Amino acid sequence: MRINELAERSGVSAASIKYYVREGLLPGGERSGYNQVTYGESHLHRLRLIRVLLDLGHLPIATVKHIVGAVEDPARSLHSTLGTTRQAAPVASVPEVLAAAAALGHADLAEMVADYRAAADRLARLEVAWLDRPATDDRDVLAERAVVGTILGDALLTAIRREAQRTASASRFGTT
Q1: Ordered DSSP codes for 73-115
Q2: Whether residue 34 is found in the same domain as residue 79
Q3: Could you tell me if residue 60 is inside a domain?
Q4: Helices vs. strands in the chain: H and E counts, helices first
Q5: Distance between CA atoms of 14 and 91, rounded to whole angstroms?
Q6: 23 lies in some domain
Q7: How far apart are CA 127 and CA 130, in angstroms?
Q8: For residues 3 and 37, is the Cβ–Cβ distance under 8 A?
């Protein structure tokens, strides 16, 4: 497909597609003539992954490039790819969070850590098991699922947690 069709099917402007190619996020298409490039379904798929990481993952371009590079590197183990994804989308450490809470006069937040850890351990086991559905040994499929599960899993968990907080708040404090 030509760039205009790729843009139409992906919902990403041709200018953005060219930018992603220049930045190394998206491989270039195949030359099909003077000043003409053809793109395939793999380009469309990659473009969708890039947009998810940018839009829902709220990651900067450089971070997306780093993650996509890890997914494409056949020499990397799946565990290493997961590590790259986790490091590329950093969050504060538990001690940092607890120190900040204590500095604000809420040191008792630490009392919830064991419950948070238990819930997180269960969730992590579910997420790792999800990687094998459907069962495959295809490293590229598993690597992409690891990235999607980590980045979109964070967004999904936050969305579900916020919904649960609204429900709990309405139950405890009323809806008005």
Answers
A1: -TTS-HHHHHHHHHHHS----HHHHHHHHHHTT-GGGGGGHHH
A2: no
A3: no
A4: 8, 2
A5: 33
A6: yes
A7: 5
A8: yes
Q: Report the CATH number at residue 19.
A: 1.10.1660.10
Tokens at 78, concatenated = 């799946």
Task: Return per-residue pLDDT of the chain as tens, 176 residues.
Answer: 999 999 999 999 999 999 999 999 999 999 988 888 999 999 999 999 999 999 988 899 999 999 998 888 889 888 888 888 888 877 889 999 999 999 999 999 999 999 999 999 999 999 888 887 877 888 888 888 888 888 899 999 999 999 999 999 999 998 76
User: Residue 138 sits in which domain range?
Assistant: 75-176
Instruction: Find tokens 């997914």 and name the residue.
Output: 71
- pTM here is 0.79
Q: Which residue has the tokens 């450089």?
A: 62
Gap between the Cα atoms of 157 and 123, Å rounded? 10
User: Could you give phi then psi for residue 30, rounded to 5 degrees?
Assistant: -95, 130
Tokens standing for residue 9: 């099917």
| Cβ(64)–Cβ(54) below 8 Å | yes
